Amino acid sequence: MATTNARSVFMGPRLRRLRRDLGLTQADMAADLEISAPYVALLERNQRPVTADMLLRLARTYNIDLADLAGDGGVDHAARMHSILKEPMFSDIDIPALEISDLAVSYPGMTEAFLRLYTAYREEQLALAERSAPALTGAASSAGQESFDANDPVAEVRRYLAARRNNFASLDDAAERIAEPAGGPNGFIERLRARHNLQVRYLPPSVMLGSVRRLDLHRKQLLLEDSLDTASLHFELAKQLAYLEMEAEIGAALEAGKFTSQSAVLLARRALAAYAAAALIMPYSVFAKAAEARRYDLEALARQFGASFEQIAHRATTLQRPGLEKVPFFLIRVDPAGNISKLLDGAGFPFAKHGGACPLWSVHGIFKTPREIVTQWLELPDGKRFFSIARTVTAGGGSFGAIRVERAIAIGCAAEHAGQLIYTRDGQGPRADEPTPIGVACRVCHRPKCAARSAPPIGRDILPDDFRTSSVPFGFSAD
């Protein structure tokens, strides 16, 4: 008890929350602890400290872990508050770090209310941006391209992930508790057998009938397609463990999303299960340490963790746990036709919500150099610079005649973080002072000299070509 500091002794809000969680009145708790009800009220209002004897009495009476009861329960909330209050909208408010910590520890209810309001604000901000976008891209929408409006479940889930910076600390915590005793991917099969009485069987595609994983509860078997590569096999085993052992954490995260359709719920549930599977294979603390040690060398990390390039790239976008943030990355996955099948933004990159992305970005051209990493410095019209790493990835295959799908992955970060990556070491690759000028999408890009332009920018008048042919597809007025 000598380690209990002065701040943790005054724990009125936590005591009140404990009492309410137990369904007790102040009189009930007073009777259980053999003290007076007014004294309980004083403790809850922080007008009396919780003594060491009282902590022990609480732990024994309600069978509570003493470390959880006396520990600094506001650490996570304080870290999230510190992260949020760095936003530009709060830049003119001087809020000392000690005040934030005191608020998180002494008033966890108020802190939780603030965090919920901020998350809701971020989700609505993203939704508003997307609702207003069709006015800028009417031509693309009328041409039949995908419309990411507020009712689109895919767009809804993407907003949900973006508002949380693609990080779910509760899933990471649960995954670390499971991964350590399981002993990593090699122990998943034994854990399924020992804890869930499930036998893992490998069957050919002709028997699996289009599934790569199927849980047969009647026969107590987990069936996996025998042509899966090692990384995919580990991922499917981890995902099944996540569904079986992390249901509570996944459910809580889903409930916080307040989705408007069942399709959005199912898509989000699938995304959270995939997040949990990655966290089981690559636990947050271990992966974050390895990523920094290897300077975010994606291929080296893939070999270290027995994962695929895409799995490593995806996991790198999740390293934004408040207080333990690493390099913030964005990620996009596209097919040769330009269709976007994965979009994760943790670095503030302005992805096109409607229509195609800029063809000058290397992610659209690396199909000509499969499995080769291509780096590129990017500069947006507003002067913001990003560093991009692109490479092709393959899905499917595994046997002769099996369909293979080639896609391209691009993962990147803002220019100020690029120096932490191995890809910028010793001046390798493209020069930072010679970035490729790109736009978000042609309809909202006002660069006048772009030979790759597919449509004129909105709000600019097209110039006649009666007497002059421009060297670019669309000549337009400068103002």
Automatic annotation (TrEMBL):
Residue stretches making up the HTH cro/C1-type domain: 15-69
Keywords for the protein's UniProt record, in alphabetical order: DNA-binding, Transcription, Transcription regulation
Pfam families per the UniProt record, alphabetical: HTH_3, Peptidase_M78, ScfRs
Keyword presence, Nucleus: no
Record field: transmembrane: none
Family: Belongs to the short-chain fatty acyl-CoA assimilation regulator (ScfR) family.
Protein name per the record: DUF2083 domain-containing protein
